[in-house]
């Protein structure tokens, strides 16, 4: 494989990426050329929302080609184009052979939720002290246990006996919270997501963990639950407030994650007509907000 490396200003990124893909690039990645320098600029965006910008003011565009000749031909074809103005070619370089599977696997070690509750990838043995184990490999859907928001939800689950409880995992991603609830005794679990790929991942991960879940798109969530879990992000959580609260049964719990510390008050205000949210955990700037419905 060979990489063609280009420098481009932000307003050229979209056209340049499209052109590289049309020239059979296997992938095109865009990085901040000023990363790790005082000129580095953060670009914030929420999944599912339009990207705030296509790239950085000085972006490094890396296109991967199967053959060196393809990469060299691409730059020859691109250079005379109007939209290449302001861009420059840094060069074509070979990509070293790597054992990508081993490299990826080495980045995912078992994750400790509590000393007895672990998330363990299939290529590791569970630690001796683990009593509850979720077997999960990184895939297309969010939720491997490495993100603080997922860990806080799982810690909340691990502190409870969910026997005979009905649980809703709203925004299930990989299904990790639903599977965690099953491992802690929940009797009936509904796991839903707007992303069909997440629903599919949840089904596969549930089968690998020998737990039974009812999965589907959000319409599959009907009725009330003893526990409603939603690890999404502050903006969608605010919009979902009436819907999520309506799913919490009298005396039941609502557990929300995906919220940053400074967003606590706006979440409290959005849920105040139905439930009184409180911050009950925090990790790396993220908070867990929970509420109990009146009996
Ligand atoms: C941060 S991931 C959480 C995944 C997993 N529950 C966890 O805790 O790791 C958020 C998930 O919510 C889903 N999502 C986002 N907006 C949603 C909505 N309005 N309704 C249902 N699911 C949504 C996304 O597709 C994504 O899979």
Automatic annotation (TrEMBL):
Family: Belongs to the methyltransferase superfamily. PrmA family.
Sites where the protein binds S-adenosyl-L-methionine: 150, 171, 193, 231
A Pfam family of this chain: PrmA
Catalytic activity, reaction form: L-lysyl-[protein] + 3 S-adenosyl-L-methionine = N(6),N(6),N(6)-trimethyl-L-lysyl-[protein] + 3 S-adenosyl-L-homocysteine + 3 H(+)
EC supergroup of this enzyme: transferase
Keywords, alphabetical: Cytoplasm, Methyltransferase, Ribonucleoprotein, Ribosomal protein, S-adenosyl-L-methionine, Transferase
Protein name: Ribosomal protein L11 methyltransferase
Signal peptide limits: none
Keyword S-adenosyl-L-methionine carried by entry: yes
MF term (GO), any: protein-lysine N-methyltransferase activity
Function: Methylates ribosomal protein L11.
GO cellular component, one term: cytosol
Subcellular location: Cytoplasm
Protein EC: 2.1.1.-
Any one of the GO BP annotations: methylation
Main location: cytoplasm
InterPro entries (alphabetical): Ribosomal_L11_MeTrfase_PrmA, Ribosomal_PrmA_MeTrfase, SAM-dependent_MTases_sf
């Amino acid at each position: 494989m060979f990489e063609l490396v280009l420098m481009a200003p932000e307003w050229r990124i979209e056209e340049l990426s499209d052109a590289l893909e049309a020239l059979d690039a296997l992938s095109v990645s865009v990085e901040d050329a000023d990363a790790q320098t005082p000129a580095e600029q953060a670009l914030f965006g929420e999944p599912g929302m339009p990207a705030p910008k296509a790239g950085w003011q000085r972006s490094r565009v890396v296109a991967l080609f199967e053959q060196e000749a393809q990469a060299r031909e691409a730059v020859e074809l691109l250079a005379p184009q109007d939209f290449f103005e302001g861009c420059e070619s840094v060069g074509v370089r070979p990509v070293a052979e790597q054992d990508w599977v081993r490299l990826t696997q080495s980045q995912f070690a078992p994750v400790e939720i509590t000393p007895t509750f672990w998330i363990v990838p299939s290529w590791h043995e569970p630690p001796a002290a683990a009593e509850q184990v979720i077997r999960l490999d990184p895939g297309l859907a969010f939720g491997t246990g490495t993100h603080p928001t997922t860990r806080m939800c799982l810690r909340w689950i691990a502190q409870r006996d969910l026997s005979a409880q009905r649980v809703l995992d709203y925004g299930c991603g990989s299904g990790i919270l639903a599977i965690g609830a099953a491992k802690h005794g929940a009797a009936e679990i509904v796991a839903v997501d707007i992303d069909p790929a997440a629903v599919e991942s949840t089904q596969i991960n549930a089968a690998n963990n020998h737990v039974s879940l009812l999965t589907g798109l959000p319409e599959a969530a009907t009725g009330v639950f003893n526990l409603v879990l939603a690890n999404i992000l502050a903006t969608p959580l605010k919009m979902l407030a009436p819907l999520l609260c309506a799913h919490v049964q009298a005396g039941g719990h609502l557990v929300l994650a995906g919220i940053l510390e400074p967003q606590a008050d706006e979440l409290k205000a959005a849920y105040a007509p139905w439930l009184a949210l409180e911050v009950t955990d925090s990790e790396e700037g993220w908070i867990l907000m929970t509420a109990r419905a009146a009996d």
